[in-house]
Amino acid sequence: MRFSAPRSPSTSPERGQFRGRSSYGLFTDSESAPSDHEVESDLESVESSTSSDSRLQLSDLRIRRNVQKPSVSRSRTDAEMRYIEDTIAAIRLRTRHQDPYEKWEQETRKDAFRTAKKTLTESQTRWHDEREKARAADLERLAALHAQQRAEVQGYLQQLRQQQQNEEKRLREDWKARDQQLWKRIESGISLEQDKARKKLEEEQRIRQEAEMRRRLEEEKRRMEEEKRKKEEEEAQRQREEKARREAEEKQKQEEEEKARLERQKQAIQRNEIGLSTANEDWRNYRAMLHRLKTETMKVVKENKQLKKEWGELRRQITPKIGQLTNDDQSIRRITMQVIQVFKPSDAPRPPVIYHALLSSLAKAIISQAETEVTAEVRTAEPLSKVTVNLLENLDGFPPVFFARLVQRVGSWAIPVILPGTDHDGRPWKDNAEAMKVMGYRKGATGEETETTAEYCSRIAGIMRVYFHILKFRPMKGPLWAMFQTPRYWVWFSRMVGGQHRALLESPAAAYLIHTALDVMGSYAMDIWGLQWIKILSLVYQGATEGVTTAHGERLLIGGASAEGKSARVRVQLEIERIMANVHPATIAAQQPTLFS
């Protein structure tokens, strides 16, 4: 491919004039011939310089020099030497001369080459870009065409596969149906053969079993006859031995019962002599007295209209007087005398049935006052207990009636004892509701549900506070009835703590009542029993703090784990610490080491 380079707009330089030279290549006389040294230096400069701007090459110069240089054997003339020198000078001048036109021509050619190269590069770039875009468009077109063709081929293949799958499914179902029919015929044939074989085996087995059964029946019959004979002999021997054993046990039992009866009789005589009884005996006696009071006294009064009317009028005179009680001696004496006048009028004595009915009403009124007033304000227990002590001294038959009513309202806590499973007559409780009623539980504030544990504990604690105050007072006319004497305080604590009954001590009511008893006469008991009372307090303190170990190895805390029991247990602990704080240290040191030492 040919490119034409435009010429430069600059004007072409003019060629210089060459130096004049002899027509014959000989120097003039005025010119001196160059020396050999100059000729040699000219040759070296010709050889070392570049001849790109000259059209005469170094090889031509050397050839010319070799042609013009005479041989060594031949002598040179002066004209020849001048010719040679002139030629060398001309060559040197030509090689060193730079022609402006040629230089301009060379630069123009270079500019044209660069311009052509740039134009070629740009044209090639555009050509390559166009070719690349065309190739990309062809590739996209081919890719779309291939995608379309691939989709068509895949759709066709999918149709073929679906047809193949449908055909395979149909053939598989046909094969499966054929296989099922074949196996069904095979199993039917096998079943027929098995039935035949089973029937044959069953028949053979039946024959063997019948023969075996006959043999076993004969052997069983012989064995049973033998066992029956041996059993009859053993039974006869056993009956003889059992009869002898029963006779011996009966005799021993009779002897033990007689011995126990005599021991109980002896203990009963001794207890009667000193006025003591067991907790269970106290419970049965006062439950029986309460039963007689309801059936023999109150029932008779309520069934007779005249007696009921008279009893009602007198009862309404007693109840307000108990409610008007205040904590001053004059009020206590006045109310005591008014109540005594109701029971012992000056004109004529009361009929016995009315008298005993009024005793029951009086006891009920005092206990009701303790339930309401003492539960709300503990200080009201003292005047109420003083009136009660005066009445116990002056009213015949009132102490057992009052204690029977006390047992009715607080249950077995007045004794105290674990509630037995039967009543005084041996009749078991009908249900849990009856047992709770016997223990002193009443209806709650709403009158529908049973009162809560806190309500129950507070109520019976108020009643028992009056009882403990009664035990604390010294009567004026001599000792009171046995259940209201001061030693009953010791008996109550010994039965409560000494028995270590889990059902008794772990009840929250136990902690409430122990705290009430200690609050009323804990310090007073210290003055009476001294070191023995400290031992009781030590045992109670241990049960209220770290717990005591029962005879069965069980850990027992007074009041149990309920919230009411915990709070009452803390009050017991604080009350014992208050009592012991007032005891002289020498008194504590005189006894065996306890929790207080």
TrEMBL record:
Keywords: mRNA transport, Nuclear pore complex, Nucleus, Protein transport, Translocation, Transport
Gene Ontology molecular functions: inositol hexakisphosphate binding; phospholipid binding; translation initiation factor binding
Domain of life (superkingdom): Eukaryota
Subcellular locations according to the entry: Nucleus, Nuclear pore complex
Official protein name in the record: mRNA export factor GLE1
Biased segments, Low complexity type: 46-57
Family, similarity comment: Belongs to the GLE1 family.
Organism: Amanita muscaria (strain Koide BX008)
GO CC terms, sorted: cytoplasm; nuclear pore cytoplasmic filaments
